[in-house]
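Report of the visiting student (M.T.), summer placement. My assignment was to run the structure pipeline on a short list of targets and document each run. The first record concerns TetR/AcrR family transcriptional regulator.
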Amino acid sequence: MSPRRTPVSRRDRPAKSPLSRGGLVAVALRIMRDEGLERVTMRRLATELDTGPASLYVYVDNMAELHGALLDELVAELDLPTDAAARHWRDELIGLLVRYTGLLMGYPSLARSVLTLRPSGPHYLRLIDALLGLLHVGGVPARQAAWGVDLLLQHATATAAEQGTRDESAVADSEAEQLLVAVREADEGDHPNVHRVRDELFSGTGEERLRWSFAVLVDGLATTATP
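After the run finished, the C-alpha cells were exported:
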C-alpha cells in the first residue's frame, strides 16, 4: 500500500507567475516551435499556465488574435535593413521579403492562418515601415508604395503557405513528378505552347524563382500608377 499523501496547504504551494499577454504568447510560441500550431489550443495553454481556459480571453479575444501575436513575435527575429543599406533599396527590399517568406515557411499552418488576418503588432508594423522606407528611397510614389506593400506581403505569405504545406505533404513529390512527366510528354500538336517552353517550366531553384517573383512585383508597382 502506498503511503498516504499529506495534503499541501494552498498557502504552502509555490506561487504561480502572474498571467499576462506576454506570458501567454511566450508559451504559445514554445508549443508551436516544438509541436506545431495545431497543438496551440486554449485548453493546452490553460494547462501549461495552471489556469482555466476562460481566463485567457482576458488577454486575447480569440485564436486569430493569438496567431497574429505569434506572427509578431516571429517577425521580431527578422533583420531589418539599416539606413546605409537603403542605397541598394531594390536588393534590400527583395532580400527582406525573401527572409520573411522563409520565416513563415517554417510554420505553414501559421502562414495559412495569416492569409486571412490583418496583423497589427509592433514588430509587424516595423516590418511594414521598413518596406515603405525602401520603396520611398527607390522613388516609388506614396500611394503605389502603400498599395504595393499589401501585395508584396500577400505574395510572401501565400508562397510560404503553399510551399510550407507541400513540404509537409507525403505526396507532394509524386504529384510534382506526375506533372513533370505530363509536361514532357505533352503532344506538340495539342499543346504547342507547353511544348515550346517545357524545358523552362521547371527550371531555376526555389530561391531564384522567389526572388524573381518579388522583382517582378517591385518593378511593376514602381511603374504602374494606381487608378
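The mean pLDDT is 90. Residues 86-223 form a domain with the Tetracycline Repressor; domain 2 fold (CATH 1.10.357.10). I thank the supervising group for their guidance throughout the placement.
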